[in-house]
Amino acid sequence: MTVRPNVQSAILGFPRIGPKRELKAALEAHWAGRMSADDLLATTADLRARTWRKQRELGANIIPSNDFSLYDHVLDTSAMVGALPTLYGQETEQVALKTYFATARGSQGEHEATCGCGHGAAPGGEGVPAAEMTKWFDTNYHYIVPEFTENQTFRLTSTKALDEYLEAKALGIETRPVLLGPVSYLLLGKARNADFDPLSLLPQLLPVYAEVLRSLARAGATWVQMDEPCLVTDLNDEAREAYRLAYRVLTDVVPPTKVMLTTYFGGLGDNLETVLWLPIDGLHIDLTRAPEQLDAVLADARPDLVLSLGVIDGRNIWKADLNAILDRLEPVIDRGRTVILAPSCSLLHTPIDLERETTLDPEVKDWLAFAVQKIAELEILTRALNQGRESVREILDAASASVACRAASPRIHDPVVQARTADRTQMQTRRSSSFEVRRAAQVRRLNLPAWPTTTIGSFPQTPAVRKARADHGKGVIDAGAYEAFLREETARTIRWQEEIGLDVLVHGEFERNDMVQYFGEQLSGFTFTRNAWVQSYGSRCVRPPIIYGDVSRPLPMTVEWWRYAQSLTDKPMKGMLTGPVTILNWSFVRDDQPRSETCRQIAFAIRDEVLDLEAAGAPIIQIDEAALREGLPLRRSDWQAYLGWAVECFRITASGVADHTQIHTHMCYSEFNDIIRSIGEMDADVISIETSRSKMELLDAFSDYRYPAEIGPGVYDIHSPRVPAVEDISALLKAAAERLPADRLWVNPDCGLKTRSWPETEAALVNMVTAARAARA
Ligand code: GLN
Ligand code: ZN
């Protein structure tokens, strides 16, 4: 008689925003003073209850708790261990909601300044800026960066993990609480106003984690999930030693509760040996990003180590090929090891439920799986392993059929596009002349003054602009009325730019809902959803486009707007485009060919647009690559490959134009040291970057590297409503000229102005032009 395997399915985390973005609505109502804290908490408790029940209904065996967050799970961890910076408020027992949100969002101090209730007034802070936020690994989710002081102490100031475990238990649902592990937590943080390694705080931090684990053990938790995603990144010996210390201490305190150490977003690689020596009870590995690590783990893991295999892609939206996964899993099960099946990572990064998409093309819809569908896939996989494939044959066959249909669909294959990327020639990635030769031609054509002034593209997307777009979407105003409105906004903005004396103008981008969506909607191979929201940070959600097929550009996308804009002025009008790498990095990308190949296809589509703009007469074309840096792989050893094709793609877009056509690019971030060589290789004529907050120091990277082309270092921070004084801007221009030849410098803000309002935009740009004129004189 053969023993039936007992494979279980586990979920590492579920999206928090709610199927109808209930969390967003509740948070924003609370922040606006329209919902009390009690009502907010009741709403979120209801959301959690529904989430737990849904997962149980879908057949998940191991359901997480404490994966929910009111804002961010890293911030929750700081709240748990008493590490919220004191300027947001100092609490004795539990972190107050107000302090928590003040850390996340900054505090305008309205409440503190007027309530007069005494406690917390001063520390709550008037007008305290929000804590720093940054991207969670290579996702589009942003976390609040923990900040530590040198003599940081830790203590338990939030029982959220225990509370939510008990909350589920009271509903009759046994859960596996999730904690961000202590080592990743410290590695994700930074030292405030002192130079020390946050990891050195580990010995002080561990007792708080131990206390949390003990409380969960006492409450009856049989397993705890400890997320340590930093284990898939490059670690030094200190970090590895920190892992050994942390898990020796923590696994000692919690028997009989067991620790499932979860790693995701990549392979363990050179950290594998360290991990396999840890006294943990279970290990989760990501087999979608790093399928090859399965063999190494199986070969070397202790026989009693429970393995959680991340076989369903938690970072993408494609239906899985269940039979193919089973082919790989069955031999593993036969070895008799205890195995759990799971998504590769938390489902936080996927939309919630495909069933809510009622307008998607049915053929494409059949290829997709969102969080709910992925849990159902796991349930089928576990059933197939436990009871044999025959028990679920029909469902398995349907999945295979759908995967096969997608692979064969004429909708995704365009031989013309494929031929184009296959025989791309050197000619297509290289401009015909060197920068110096091009520069001479551009100087003759453009005839710009020294210190030329310009903006990055967008002008304020006012409530009126957003309303007109929404009304047009709802059919309240027709296409003609909407177009007339946009033309008027554009014309007004151009007149105003002329009046204040800007040198190179933009049309303002009023017709664009979003810098990626606007292009995706006009390219073939893209589709869009109605409700497939993914959390970006706090209450902010995005709906990434889905790239499902070969990409091409059936018709010009921006030429008519450019032509109209240029017809209103004699000043040079920039053509404005989003670059291929940014479009790729902000979309769900097809998984049936390398990302580089999809990016090349987008690049050729944008190249077509560049050439059409040039033919229409555009003297300057800006190709924004806002997200090029954020696409860097987690491991340094993978950087060169990524940068190689990313740069090539940019060059495909830009290299077809004549010498006298000036190519600009824009990148809104300020860390260039690591990638400066690649920035140079992009071979743009002008690059505008974010620099104002770094006081131009980051230009050192450009001067050390002897960056050959022209640069527009941002002279004021568009993230703040503050209007920069002329002297502030002049000081920055001076600082820039100390680092780079003045005849290579442009004058522009840090980024687009779409989030700002008109009064501050007007005042800031007038000051900017004044400062540029002073620099000329
Ligand atoms: N041209 C875009 C704008 O001005 C660039 C935005 C960005 O870089 N994020 O809005
Ligand atoms: Zn920008």
TrEMBL record:
Domain Cobalamin-independent methionine synthase MetE N-terminal: 9-332
GO MF entries: 5-methyltetrahydropteroyltriglutamate-homocysteine S-methyltransferase activity
Record keyword tRNA-binding present: no
Binding site for Zn(2+): 666, 668, 690, 751
Residues that coordinate or bind L-methionine: 456-458, 509, 624
The protein's annotated pathway: Amino-acid biosynthesis; L-methionine biosynthesis via de novo pathway; L-methionine from L-homocysteine (MetE route): step 1/1
UniProt entry keywords in alphabetical sequence: Amino-acid biosynthesis, Metal-binding, Methionine biosynthesis, Methyltransferase, Repeat, Transferase, Zinc
Cofactor(s) the record lists: Zn(2+)
Binding site for L-homocysteine: 456-458, 509, 624
Primary enzyme class: transferase
EC assignment: 2.1.1.14
Family matches, as InterPro entries: Cbl-indep_Met_Synth_N, Cobalamin-indep_Met_synthase, Met_Synth_C/arc, UROD/MetE-like_sf
Protein's UniProt keywords contain Zinc: yes
All copies of domain Cobalamin-independent methionine synthase MetE C-terminal/archaeal, residue ranges: 451-773
Chain sites annotated for binding 5-methyltetrahydropteroyltri-L-glutamate: 21-24, 135, 540-541, 586, 630
Superkingdom of the organism of origin: Bacteria
Pfam families referenced in this protein's UniProt entry, alphabetically: Meth_synt_1, Meth_synt_2
Active site: 719 (proton donor)
Family statement: Belongs to the vitamin-B12 independent methionine synthase family.
Role noted for this protein: Catalyzes the transfer of a methyl group from 5-methyltetrahydrofolate to homocysteine resulting in methionine formation.
Name assigned to this protein: 5-methyltetrahydropteroyltriglutamate--homocysteine methyltransferase
